[in-house]
Design goal:
single chain, alpha/beta, nine-stranded mixed beta sheet, 9 helices, 41% helix
Length: 256
């Protein structure tokens, strides 16, 4: 990992707006730091982040893995050759947009599969990180695949939940699993789509600091229904304001 690279990984149960928030964080970073190198990684096999960001992935990392695996059985035998080839293909596949680059992980492996090529590609991703100032990872529900398939360390782990009791009770479990599986510097909780934000009075929930509480955002809902990207949201939308607040409270950005 680069010395100053900030890696922001979002995790949480399904249906809480994690992908929308991931996209909004990318939008906020591009707005505030237009000269920075920003990489958005869609680690969800549904590839929802691409829609939220308005990009069309060429190939997924899993498809690249298969191509490199075929090479491994043939001409590529040296580990450094494998890494170099995988990194080259990743850059060839990466979607470049104004202000950020995009990479999709693709469909995950079958449970329990830890073949050697995944280790190689994890190393390639670690090498890629060195070339970026900010990396935003939209993980699928749970956090194991963040540690297993993308990176071994993140700087900022963002838990996302709705305001339901069940959702908030899961946060402590997520924290406990994160402590075992992911190396992180800071952790925070965004309570999204909160209909009664005034009832959230705790500074911590499940031992995770609350860094933002976001009311239901009809503008974001309409944006989703129409299939628009977050770059079409008005700057004062509730979800963008919440993303900025969370990033500030976690020390990712300064005053905005």
């Amino acid at each position: 990992m680069g010395v100053n690279t900030k890696i922001i990984a979002l995790t949480g149960k399904g249906g809480v707006g994690k992908t929308s928030l991931s996209a909004c964080i990318v939008r906020v970073l591009t707005d505030i730091y237009p000269d920075s190198k920003i990489l958005a990684i869609d680690a969800d096999p549904a590839v929802g982040l691409s829609v939220a960001l308005g990009v069309k992935p060429k190939l997924t990392l899993d498809e690249i893995r298969k191509k490199v695996a075929e090479d491994v059985t043939g001409k590529l035998r040296d580990t450094q050759d494998i890494l170099a080839e995988a990194k080259f293909q990743l850059y060839e596949t990466m979607v470049e947009k104004e202000g950020f680059a995009f990479l999709a992980i693709g469909r995950p492996e079958a449970a329990g599969c830890y073949c050697a090529i995944n280790t190689y590609l994890r190393k390639v991703i670690e090498i890629l990180v060195d070339d970026f100032d900010y990396v935003v990872i939209d993980g699928e529900a749970g956090i194991e695949q963040i540690n297993r398939r993308v990176l071994e360390k993140v700087t900022h782990l963002v838990c996302v939940s709705d305001q339901s009791r069940k959702g908030l009770q899961i946060i402590e479990t997520i924290r406990n699993v994160a402590d075992e599986l992911v190396m992180y510097d800071k952790i925070g909780l965004i309570v999204n789509r909160a209909p009664l934000p005034e009832k959230i009075t705790e500074k911590e929930i499940g031992s995770v600091p609350v860094v933002a509480v976001i009311r239901p955002d009809d503008v974001m809902t309409e944006n989703d229904i129409e299939g628009k990207s977050v770059f079409e949201l008005p700057a004062d939308s509730l979800i963008l304001e919440g993303a900025r607040t969370a990033l500030k409270n976690m020390g990712v950005i300064d005053e905005y």
